[in-house]
Amino acid sequence: MGNASVLAAPSDAPERAAPGLPQPYLLFLGDTRESGYAKTAFGLRDWAPERCVGEYALTEADVTTGLTRMTPIEARSAGARSLLIGVANPGGTIPESWRAALLDALEAGLDIVSGMHMRLTDIPGLAHVAERLGRRLIDVRVPPADIPVASGRKRSGKRLLTVGTDCALGKKYTALALWRAFAARGVDSDFRATGQTGIMIAGGGIPMDAVVSDFEAGAAELLSPDAAPDHWDVIEGQGALTHPSFAAVSLGLLHGSQPDVFVVCHEPGRTEMIGTASYALTSIEEIVDLTMKLGSRTNPAIRCGGFSFNTAALSDAEATDLMARESERLGLPVADPIRGGPAFDALVASCLA
Amino acid sequence: MGNASVLAAPSDAPERAAPGLPQPYLLFLGDTRESGYAKTAFGLRDWAPERCVGEYALTEADVTTGLTRMTPIEARSAGARSLLIGVANPGGTIPESWRAALLDALEAGLDIVSGMHMRLTDIPGLAHVAERLGRRLIDVRVPPADIPVASGRKRSGKRLLTVGTDCALGKKYTALALWRAFAARGVDSDFRATGQTGIMIAGGGIPMDAVVSDFEAGAAELLSPDAAPDHWDVIEGQGALTHPSFAAVSLGLLHGSQPDVFVVCHEPGRTEMIGTASYALTSIEEIVDLTMKLGSRTNPAIRCGGFSFNTAALSDAEATDLMARESERLGLPVADPIRGGPAFDALVASCLA
């Protein structure tokens, strides 16, 4: 969220994210020396390793995903179809020093996939070379064209949406973990991505925060189409219904997703909403109440499946104790997907119940 | 709402709606023979007569606003600065048969203002002539560039927002009537427009349904800036918090507007929400409850000022009786701004209390 450049998005991009990205990827790390900036590449390695043939970095970089390091030509021979920019640096700009590497990738026969704020088409000369070679430059922050207005028609199949008490506390991670757990239990399911990193992992999706508001719910309807009765779409949530900046995104996504089940994501200890002028975090119960009330409009059978806590700041004992107490208090499973264990199994079972 | 063309809006328009439109207008009626299609012109005549120097129509037209009919050259001499397309026909297209008249307007020294779905720049040759003459082509459905993400910071001044149990039942009309009534009582106030007709009447505003969802609340913050403590912004509402297609627009507008007072607009007898697959209309009480709950996030002092009923389908006696009963039941004034009278005076007093 907060990407001003999406205002200029819909008409000037040579290629739109949907329906699918060219995979597998060669993960590009640029000249990154700060592992925190390479979280997109790490996310791909962790959640879609079968879609990554290796990594490529400039000699200045000292960050690695642990995947085989290769040149664009080697990656193309190994089956890669695109170079994916695996870095999310502050400002989202693509430095001049990466340009030669991006041109090499195009020459080697790879498309380029980016989730940066800066557009690939804004890099001098890149679009010209891509056109000459018949290669694609794909900015995944660009929503698909011709999104319809939502109809509210009930769709077949099952849907789960992760929601939150704030932004940036684990809605994507929770959705991915639940999707993987569903698959491990033999449940037919898809992860439905709504932000740039999720879209790269899934190979498709819609950047919901970049959609024009009149079409927000319509985009969510498009994202999780009719499916078999026992199929689950696990949908990555965005924002929070009580976030003073981004609630429009959250409500359009909730209405259009028509979730049967939602999981509330929360970070114990966080007291203020990110990016706001001192807005206190909403309570978990209030998010449950609002999600039930607003979500029942398009799916009267909506229910809360449980809670996903981001307990990275706590010790094992503290986290286990807190989650047990909160589960008792709230009457539903509370788990940290990263810690897993019986609590997470209980959350998965509750969602599928 | 429902304008697919706004998806392509932000980057390709030669001119954006904000901050102000070139006024006064010459109202253009095209070849319209159906008065319902000329409601934009009638709205301008009724709500901003001081901004209209006259009307202009093709010989085929038999609709009139009652204003002096004049040519573009005559209008320019009378002070007009733009030709305003006062027609909203089905599909929002600008027929080929109007092209010569639009070119005449440019040649006469007028800019052109349009709220149609079709862009003025999509009319063959128009942009070229406008550029040669230094004239502007203004599509008011294009939001301003560089809208910030909402901060949630409390702004000074007072704000009123009209909300509704559905789309298209009088939120613009109610806001205009309240604004006019405030002014008649000596209250310093501005009408803040959020849709194309309102923007033409006000001479500025933001088409909220065309704003990218991440910036929806930010656009609403931009629309009603800090003001004197006793100044009122009367803000035109959009959609409904329970409309399965457009609630994202409504919630972003509510959060960003930070209203002190809201008025619920309703049409007695309407049973289903417009444009949906059989969604029952939400009750008035539920809209009050949701607006209080969600609106208190950015303005804890929010309150309901009363109710505006669209009773066009009822007789005088039926309307008076119904509104009296509903006012008794709901505990706040109920009025039809078009009927006015003591009930409307009570609504105005309740809003300003």
TrEMBL record, chains A, B:
InterPro entries: DgcN-like (IPR011669), DgcN-like_C (IPR035086), DgcN-like_N (IPR035402), P-loop_NTPase (IPR027417). Residues 149-342 form the D-glutamate N-acetyltransferase-like C-terminal domain. SUPFAM superfamilies: P-loop containing nucleoside triphosphate hydrolases. Pfam families: DUF1611 (PF07755), DUF1611_N (PF17396). Residues 51-143 form the D-glutamate N-acetyltransferase-like N-terminal domain. PANTHER family: DUF1611 DOMAIN-CONTAINING PROTEIN (PTHR40690:SF1), GLL3100 PROTEIN (PTHR40690). This is DUF1611 domain-containing protein.
